[in-house]
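Issue 218. Parser rejects a valid record. Input:
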Amino acid sequence: MILAFIAMVAAGFFYLLHRIDESVRPIYLVAVEDDMIELATLLSSDISRRSEEGTLVLEGFRELISHAMWRRFEAVIYDRTKDRIEFGVYVVDHNGIVVFDSLDDSRRGQDYSEWIDVRRTLTGQYGARATWEDDPQSPGDRVQVFYVASPIVVEGRVLGAVTVYKTTSKGFSYFLQVRRETMRGAVLVSLLVLGWGLMITHWVNRPIQQLTEYAQTIRDGGRAATPMLGSKDMESMARAFDEMREALEGKAYVEQYVQTLTHEIKSPLSAIRGAAELLEEPMTEERHAAFVANIRGESARIQQLVDRLLELSAIENRKGLRQTEPIALDDLVHEILDELSPVIETKHLRVNFEADPAKHVKGERFLLKLALRNLVQNACEFTPTSGGIHIYYRACSLHIHDDGPGIPDYAANRVFERFYSLQRPETGKKSSGLGLSIVRQVADLHQGEVHLRNHAEGGAEAVFVFRPA
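Output the parser choked on:
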């Protein structure tokens, strides 16, 4: 689009320059010819006055022309200094034979009767011609010479003709100067138009590009703030995009959650209903206790699912952070490890934390703790009894490496999906599948990233990347 605009502007100005060139050049040539015919008429009238008895009389005329040709003067015309006459004159008799030439006396006696300026003038017509000739001042170059003739008339009889001739390149310098100035002006205007056009293009395209990036981020499931576009019309469009996004997300959110929640709760509800029906029948105390424990376990599973859904819903509906503060990551990790100490001690896990008191980040403490706790808890659940967990920093990221079985290939691209969960190695049970979704939402709110991958030395590694301070 921009290239097309540049091409159109360039083509327009080149056409304008071509039209100016084609228009100004003929005007200049007409002006030159007009002056030359007037001069030729003046000179032919002088000879006619001297030749009253029917014979060409050039005495006095030669002295006039010679004096004028050799006279020096100084005239500053614009930025060009003129110091001598730059035209020539030759005179022919009624047969077209040269009898006088102001610039080249060797031409005297030559027959010019076939030259258009002479032939037409001697027959009572207007005679003028333009001829390309060798430039005597610059060997090897050719110049265009204008010839304009006027008849010498005495008592109605044509006795000869006076031709004024001039090299166009000498006077043409004025036209070339105007042409150069016009070119410079046209180039300057072209650059100004192009610059202004590019500014307008950027002013229009940049908001559209921001809206496109915003829409693509939302399409890919990312979190993005409504772009500030600086124009009322563009701001209205951005708000319309945001309202449409919220409406579509809200509808899709409800549909997806209702379907998934129904599917997830269906299994524990069936188990509770089956256990309740069996409790109505006579049974031993041992079986009675087992069914009661089953009901409690499935009820806790439903409660956990609902709590996690509420947490995730609260985070997903937030557009940004609320109370940010500098957070010492060491303190946060130690708090999480203290809270998970019952699980760690029960499974006899070895936790190696490479602390660094200098590591601080800015964010919302509650959310960061919620996200990192999910990652450490996952590591504890997937690490076998007496296994190890290694927690360490690398630049702007926190790494949590466990000794578990790693991530199966089929699950590598789905671990952050809502309600997607893998069986725990020791219990064979699945979680709510919402923990990692919460972690990703927290990372997005902090303009960071989270990755879960297999480690080169075995096991899985979770990486929470913080935004550089």
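Fixed in the parser; the record now loads. The mean pLDDT is 79.
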